[in-house]
Amino acid sequence: MNFKKFLKYFLFFILFVTNIYAGDKQLFLKQTRDWNYDDPAKGTPYAVWLSSSGELPPDFDTMPSLPFPPNLLMFSEGKPDAKPVTNIQEWEKKRAEMKNEIMKWITGTVPPAPKKFKVKELTKTKDGINELRKLKLIFGPKNAAFMHLQMLIPAGKGPFPVIMGPSGWDVMKDAVNRGYIVCMYAGSDKNNDSWAYKDIWPEYDFSDITRRAWGASRVIDYLYTQKIVDKNKIAITGHSRNGKQALWTAAFDERITGAAPNCGGTLGENLIRYSPDKYNTEPLRGITGGYPYWAHSRIRFFVGREQKLPVDMNSIQALVAPRALILGTAINDIGGGPWGIEQSYLSVKRVYKLLEKEDNLSMLPYFGGHNFSIKTLNSYLDFFDYAWGRSTKKPEVKQFYNYSFEKWKELSKAQINLAIYPVKTDEDLLKNENDELITTVKDWENRKKEIIKHIKWAIGAKPADYSFTPVPNRDFGQAAEKPLATSTMGKLEIKVNGANGKYVYTGYLYYPINAENYPVVIYLNPLAHSTGFNGEMQSPMLKTFIEKGIAVFGMDMIGCGTRIEEVTDFYNKYPHWTKMGKMIDDVKYAVDILQKQSSVNKKRIYVFGYSLGGSVALFSALFDNRINGVATLCGFTPLRTATADKGIEGIYTYSHLQGLLPRLGYFINGNENRIPFDFNEIIACLAPRPVMIDAPQWDSDAVFSDVVKSVESAKKVYGIYNKKDNLILKTPDDWNHIIYATELQQEIADFFVIISKK
Question: In this predicted structure, what is the pLDDT of residue 50?
């Protein structure tokens, strides 16, 4: 190997590793992975595109914020002229609009199909009783483009259905035993004939995955010429990035009558807006930084602004309707998101219902990690056989996150009279029931009792007989594995039992080796549904805390990682309690356990939570005085001001999406200011204990100015105790993230170091 090549590969390796571990806001300008340039000095793909195109970001201020899946049956969503889609004719118009938006922001544009192509047969052999053909398709200007494929054809006359895909031959070939032609083509990382298409058709800006999908369509051109092929039964599947490709191919090629993307993650089955750090899945910033060619470069404009995307993966999935589509994902896929995928499925289901083809949409969540197996393939074939009329056995659709606000109302029979809840603002915090100003600790303690009473009402009543028995030997995959011990960090796995002696969950205590009487931080994970408290997310943070002499106790919160099944049917069993109540209870048990550890400083037990974990941390400390300090990162936005016009999830997160505090759902759509408590009151009730609120200015889940006002309001109560310095507000010029957010993690660890020395 000459020096130039060595230097090229060495630089590529360094850039690749750097990209994997990049995570701060500078990533927006530091896309590092580049498979195409001999000279790294030319710049990264994104930088080159910006320079060559001269393109500027869209005017985000004029774009509506859509924190929920884009409404597939709404014209001009989020705008004054919004209008619902009510019939098939209107749907076709909406579909065309979405297709244009998808090509603009996600996929890029593609050339028209070639009018003719050549076929070169490379080999034709027998594989047992089946026939194996290997072919090369030649097409395009000056016959410069080509696509290799191979077909495994069952014995018999046909015509046969087809299952096609770019990789996974050892799995795919099993379909021949079901009477399917298996067709593989060169559209994978290791064998990608479509890479050259960008130079053959330079006037089109199709991305790498789009080029692969367009190449798959050329294979269908050939299949349509074969009498042995049942043209009404052509399906496509693919795993991981090839799952993304399978979906995109089916969306843009209506000759495909069945699609089964498998573990495609973000840009596949999962919604882009449900991919940021708080979900610990495959984030848009990671895709566009690590794999900048997959989608169009324009999509990178939306990193940190995912809610501004006018279309999402549910939009691409809806393009497949009314044809057969099944969304497949491993529950603990490290790049997936089972909750987000279910939200996408439910959104797309409305389109299939409009088209009266509801049975043509399905979903397959299965246990395990990022994988594609013969068992999974056969589940997809079962679905295609049913959708195509080859079978009468309808596959079951399993929903793990089956909560809905409407269903909860039926189960709980809860009735709320909004008129008894007066309108409140932050200014009412230090007013008693007679509207008099509170100035003493005694008077505040009375006011605090009233606040806690309202919060208990929202949390509900804990049942005396709560229990959940996990399925033994369940395969949770690599994503749910917990951080390992190191030479400087010990690990203690603890089975946590409740007051009734029954198993509750497994906790993990990470502590500094050879240390005694150390402080402990209970870490509460965000909405990391597939991973929970996971090694990929927590290991760097653990290192930061351990180096400062602070132990960390972690667990999967209910609904995440190894505890996903625990939220399924939660409200069927306990309609008068809440998931938030259960999370608070789990933190209490964690404190119980830590109080029994001889090496733990019992007066130095703290909680820290990111995103949802931040909210849980505040609630938990409110009900447990043994918790001596709290830190939150992107932990909340005030409830009463989280109105629909703010463009954030707001109280919907608690009431409708995650089902944490369902009763708050009665206050949406104009009654938010009647909610009987808010975060300024929760924080104030923690006074005079030390609390740090870390609120990045660019957190898309919060209204920054409202968070600041909320903390300033709570600080008045700290003033009554003469402890104003115990409430700290940090407002970094940053966005909502924690993975490899070194500065943020250091800031939080330093807070606990300081308070542990007091």
Answer: 86
Residue 594, pLDDT score: 97
Mean pLDDT of 24-40: 32
Alpha helices in 152-206 (DSSP H): 169-172, 197-200
Do the domains 478-756 and 118-387 match in fold? yes
Q: Which helix (H) or strand (E) holds 164?
A: strand 160-165
By the 10 Å C-beta count (0-12 exposed, 13-18 middle, 19+ buried), 231 is classed as middle
Identify the CA nearest to 386 among candidates 233, 500, 530: 233
Mind giving me the DSSP string for 582-619? Answer: HHHHHHHHHHHHHHT-TTEEEEEEEEEEETHHHHHHHH
Structure tokens at 435: 């509207």
pLDDT at 10: 43
Note the pLDDT tens digit of each residue in 269-284. Answer: 999 999 998 999 999 9
How far is 414 from 522, CA to CA, in rounded Å? 33
Backbone torsion region of residue 346, taken as left when φ is above 0, otherwise alpha when ψ lies between -120 and 50, otherwise beta = alpha
pLDDT band of residue 22 (cuts 50, 70, 90) is very low
Alpha carbon of 495 to those of 502, 506, 509: distances in Å? 10, 5, 11
Distance separating alpha carbons of residues 298 and 304, to the nearest angstrom: 14
The residue among 695, 487, 694, 510 whose CA lies nearest residue 600 is 510
Percent of residues, the chain, with pLDDT higher than 90: 85
Which H/E stretch holds residue 366? Answer: strand 361-366
Buried b (16+ CB within 10 A) or exposed e, 437-476: ebeeeeebeebbeebbeebeebbbeeeeebebeeeeeeeb
Residue 585 CB partners (closer than 8 Å, separation 6+):
462, 466, 498
- What is the CB-side half-sphere exposure of residue 496 using CA atoms within 13 A? 26
Q: How many other C-beta atoms are found inside a 10 Å radius of the C-beta of residue 181?
A: 27
Calpha distance 551→594 (Å, rounded): 11
Query: How many other CB atoms are there within 10 angstroms of residue 547's CB atom?
Result: 13
CA distance 95 to 12: 41
**What pLDDT, on a 0 to 100 scale, did the predictor assign at position 42?**
53
Q: Report pLDDT digits (tens) over 75-111.
A: 999 999 999 999 999 999 999 999 999 999 999 999 9
The confidence score (pLDDT) of residue 469 equals 86
CATH superfamily, domain 478-756, is Alpha/Beta hydrolase fold, catalytic domain (3.40.50.1820)
Residue 39 has pLDDT above 60, yes or no: no
Whole-number Cα distances in Å, 627 to 553, 621, 624, 739 = 13, 6, 6, 25
Q: What is the DSSP letter of 104?
A: I
CATH class of 118-387: alpha beta
Neighbouring CB atoms inside 10 A of 433's CB total 8
What pTM does this model have? 0.92
Q: Which residues contact 351 (CB under 8 A, 6 or more apart)?
A: 72, 73, 91, 318, 321
Nearest Cα neighbor of 369 from 535, 516, 503, 180 is 535
Average pLDDT (329-342) is 93
- Separation of alpha carbons 753 and 643, rounded Å: 37
Q: What is the domain partition of the chain in residue ranges?
A: 1-54, 118-387, 478-756
Cross-strand partners of 84: 74
Provide the pairing of β-strand 324-330 with 361-366.
parallel
